[in-house]
Amino acid sequence: MSEPLVFVLAAIALIGGSLFYLFFYRSWHRRRELQQPFPEPWRRLLVEQVPLYSRLSDAHKSRLENLVQLFISEKDFYECDGFEIDDRVRVTIAGHACLLLLERAFYEYDDVKSILVYPDIYRVQDTDSDGLVVSTSDETRAGEAWSHGRVILAWSQCELAISHPHGPHNVILHEFAHQLDYLDGTADGAPPLSGDQAKQWQDTMTEAWDHLRHRLQHHHKPWLDPYGATEPAEFFAVLTEAFYQQPHHLRHEKPGVYDVLCRFYRFDPEHMRGHYQ
Question: For residue 218, how many C-alpha atoms fall within 13 Å in the half-sphere facing its CB?
Fold first, then answer.
């Protein structure tokens, strides 16, 4: 075989391999992963650690298991401050995070690369710049979501959500809602939408945001965790917590908001049905 022919064949193989990796490898890997049976110990952990799992239809249970399987196979978990990560931690975080994708595509988490887990609320140093003046402050946090695919969680706060499944707080749902918000490049409280759905979202959420802030300014009891009034990105994340944890309350207080969240997540947690139109 001549040297030029060898070169051409090698180039074709290299190009073919590159194209396969870029366009087909991820789908091939996911199909292969889902050919493996879902581990029974993981299913028991979903029952114990993800309260909503037991109330799902059989189809949604199977869907969540597939999502968890892919999530754990693709995402990197990192131990922080001596915290030890085991299957209980992985399945708990993956199970809650993937509730947001029951009727959405798993590729919406493609940008999520790593999950860092601290044993408890942790401290960070925040820097703020105002012109020439730079100030720093120490803050305590239960979780964070970064635009480049990093999620940070305090395990004690994850367990709090498990023990209070109908309470207002679920740090896992909160931070992964931020990741969906980042899909259009910035966390601004409005995930990627188009057409009538985008207009309905804008009109409904603006009215609800203004109403929440008005109630707080006049010292009236808010219909949502006040943290949601700090900025639009937090408003969406806190609403997502309420949507999955307290759907009856949210639907009663703000039916329009509940409706646009049903349309976005394509799921109705109060009635446990999907493909919401």
Answer: 7
User: Cα 100 to the chain's mean position, in Å?
Assistant: 6
How many Cα atoms within 13 Å fall on the side-chain side of residue 79? 7
Give the number of C-alpha atoms closer than 13 A to the C-alpha of residue 14, restricted to the C-beta side.
Answer: 6
Q: What beta strand segments (E) does 53-164 contain?
A: 76-79, 114-118, 122-130, 133-141, 143-145, 150-154
Rounded average pLDDT over 185-201: 92
In CATH, which superfamily holds the domain spanning 188-277?
Collagenase (Catalytic Domain) (3.40.390.10)
The ranges assigned to domains in the chain are 188-277
Mean pLDDT taken over the chain = 89
Q: Quick one: which H or E segment has residue 115?
A: strand 114-118
Lowest mean pLDDT among 10-19, 29-38, 102-111, 193-202: 10-19
Place of tokens 């969240």: 261
pLDDT at 19 over 80: no
Tell me how far apart the alpha carbons of residues 76 and 149 are, in angstroms, rounded to a whole number: 11
User: What was the pLDDT predicted at 44?
Assistant: 98
**What's the pTM value of the predicted model, to 2 decimals?**
0.86
Give mean pLDDT, residues 122-150.
Answer: 75
| Two tokens, residue 269 | 């947690």
Beta strands 114-118 and 150-154, pairing class: parallel
The Cα–Cα gap between 220 and 238 comes to 19
Bridge pairing between strands 76-79 and 114-118: parallel
